[in-house]
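pls design
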């Protein structure tokens, strides 16, 4: 299959490289010449495990090319995927579709024959209809059709997620489009991935409903964690106890400092907009958005209370800045409000992250960083684990405790066993581990 991919952001680059790896002939198109040049030199615009090698291997075999020229890129393509950004619009939180529509207009003019236009970007319900309207208006070739094929990959595990999806969702009423997409995804059927054919609006809504539901799950366990602390229960065991029920499932029940990233915060807001416009407000998701915002804002308070009520003049080490491990992405990361608030209250904050420090410096004014976890702990009154990178999971706690000035270990990801940490002489505070707290 000849495939064109418009947009080389997270989804576009990963999907393009994976389609090429299936044996398809893929050209990725992006307006940003600097980005295309860099990719052609083997420098990836994003930090994603395995991506650089996958791009190189497929480019070397002549199955994957990159260009800024859309006309060239879509030449002879049977399917053109749109994977440009849909950031939250300032003010109303609605998805900003200007990049999508601009790409569609250019595409309509660039196409020399009919193609299946597939949206991979997360777009509000009804966007496919608007794309079809624009294509017709701009005189796209007769027989061009529009399908929705939302992507569910997670950053940091993007290639594995793409190649082993739980399901593939394809929304279209067009028989030819269905056949083209079935052919494109055929290699995944060997991995037993089910493909779901639905209407276009259904596929569009499925993506938002999935992300909103996961956000609900996380916020639910975060609130249960707070309750565990108050009543002397352990949320890790509660999560396991409920997660073993097949109807609930064990995933996305890890309590933490609140969800962040490029999808959940943006997509929940966009879903609320769509729902309000449709006159069917989503009260659960609405509450979850508020609960998550409050949660992030409350994390600094945990540090303050571990330090006896004030952080003024205290040195606080932060382990992990990215919104989750295996990424350098800082978008809506819980570390941002935490560090800003501690700094405003007079703390001297020093941080380390294996990948996100450069990005973090651009988002947190005056951020001081160290070279590793032990350097962060050196002389610190408190150490806060914000992102559960693997390299923070097996730190030598005795060594940490020996170099720290104070003893507070605030583990916002429940990486450590409370007893083990206490044995090292640390004052351990996890999330929702009521049992581990000393009786008042
Ligand atoms: C998410 C969806 O998982 C993916 O299907 C969709 O396509 C894009 O959005 P991503 O944002 O990359 O992917 O990360 P994810 O692993 O889902 O984590 C999102 C946030 O939730 C992170 O801040 C993470 O720390 C937090 N989280 C996740 C929890 O706090 N607890 C959990 O149990 C799971």
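designed seq:
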């Amino acid at each position: 299959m000849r495939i064109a991919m418009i947009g080389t952001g997270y989804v576009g680059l990963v999907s393009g490289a994976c389609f090429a790896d299936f044996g398809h002939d893929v050209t990725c198109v992006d307006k940003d010449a600097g980005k295309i040049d860099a990719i052609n030199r083997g420098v990836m615009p994003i930090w994603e495990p395995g991506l650089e090698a996958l791009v190189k291997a497929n480019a070397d075999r002549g199955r994957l090319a990159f260009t800024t020229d859309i006309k060239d890129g879509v030449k002879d393509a049977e399917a053109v995927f749109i994977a440009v950004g849909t950031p939250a619009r300032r003010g109303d939180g609605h998805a900003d579709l200007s990049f999508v529509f601009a790409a569609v207009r250019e595409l309509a003019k660039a196409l020399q024959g009919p193609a299946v236009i597939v949206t991979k970007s997360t777009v509000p319900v009804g966007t496919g209809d608007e794309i079809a309207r624009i294509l017709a208006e701009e005189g796209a070739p007769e027989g061009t059709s529009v399908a929705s094929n939302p992507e569910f990959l997670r950053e940091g595990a993007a290639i594995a997620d793409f190649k082993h999806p739980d399901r593939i969702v394809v929304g279209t009423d067009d028989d030819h489009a269905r056949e083209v997409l079935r052919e494109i995804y055929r290699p995944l059927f060997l991995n037993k991935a089910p493909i779901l054919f639905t209407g276009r609006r259904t596929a569009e809504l499925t993506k938002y409903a999935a992300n909103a539901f996961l956000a609900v799950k996380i916020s639910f366990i975060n609130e249960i964690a707070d309750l565990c602390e108050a009543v002397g229960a352990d949320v890790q065991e509660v999560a396991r106890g409920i997660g073993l029920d097949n109807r609930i499932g064990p995933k996305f029940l890890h309590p933490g400092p609140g969800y962040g990233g490029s999808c959940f915060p943006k997509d929940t807001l966009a879903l609320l907009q769509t729902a309000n416009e449709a006159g069917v407000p989503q009260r659960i998701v609405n509450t979850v958005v508020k609960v998550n915002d409050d949660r992030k804002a409350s994390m600094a308070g945990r540090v303050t209370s571990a330090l006896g009520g004030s952080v003024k003049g205290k040195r606080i080490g932060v382990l992990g800045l990215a919104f989750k491990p295996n990424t350098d992405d800082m978008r809506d990361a819980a570390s941002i409000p935490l560090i800003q608030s501690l700094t405003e209250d007079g703390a001297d904050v020093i941080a380390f992250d294996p990948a996100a420090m450069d990005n973090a410096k651009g988002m947190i004014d005056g951020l001081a960083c160290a070279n590793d976890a032990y350097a962060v702990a050196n002389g610190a009154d408190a150490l806060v684990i914000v992102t559960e990178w693997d390299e923070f999971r097996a730190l030598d706690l005795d060594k940490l405790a020996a170099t720290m000035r104070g003893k507070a270990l605030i583990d916002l990801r429940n990486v450590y066993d409370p007893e083990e940490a206490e044995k090292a002489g640390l004052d351990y505070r996890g999330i929702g581990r009521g049992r581990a707290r000393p009786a008042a």
